[in-house]
Amino acid sequence: QSQLVESGGGTVPPGGSLRVSCATSTSSFKFYAMGWFRQAPGKEREGIACISSDSNYKNYPDSVKGRFSISRDNARNTVYLHMDSLKPEDTGIYFCAAQWKVSGTCSLSEAPYGNWGQGTQVTVAS
Question: How far does the chain reach from its first CA to its final CA, in angstroms?
Answer without folding.
Answer: 39
